Amino acid sequence: MLFPSAVLSNGYGTTETGPVGFGPHPDGIPTPPLALGYPMDGIRLRLVDGDNRDADEGVLEMWTPALMPGYHQLPERTAAAMTDDGYYITGDIMRRDAHGFYEFVGRADDMFVCSGENIYPGEVEKMLERHPAIHQACVVPVPDEIRGQKPVVFVVPASGATLAAQDVKEFALANAPAYQHPRHVEFVAELPLAGTNKVDRHALIQRAASLDSQG
Length: 215
Known about the structure:
One of its GO terms (molecular function) is acid-thiol ligase activity. This protein is of the alpha+beta class.
């Protein structure tokens, strides 16, 4: 190993609020492996679920000393991104544990509903990517007459790995609620990227719909 003493940690920041929002717990409690950390001093956070502004899981709203005054010459966009009391609406779904650590769940605008259950693609993807034969996964919805929507996953296998669709489904069923398991698995060499260098979910949604229509 090149860096045997290195410690890996997750980070979180936004252009609108600054690069640092979370750090170590003030009582020295170890940060869980998937957590972003504990809120830094001087930063105010809340998780909003509908009318509940003190939820344990919901959309993260954030105030920091580095908060933007607004988007340049875009007053309507600024108004849509800010609450009446001055918090920035991140659009990120977070979960807070009993010790106050925050964990990223997914993007609010990526969420879809299957059989009455909310599915956050990022959460399912993290679970699937724990499989040693899966390098990368992207979960998207397709319409379903009975469930409303159902999950489809595009999988990039790990180098040299042998993997069948049933292996992916069984791993999902063993490690997550049944409603999250992908109803169709499509193997690809790589995932398409959008101009932001993020996975192009829109392109994959269209591709998944095409695959579903073909049966």
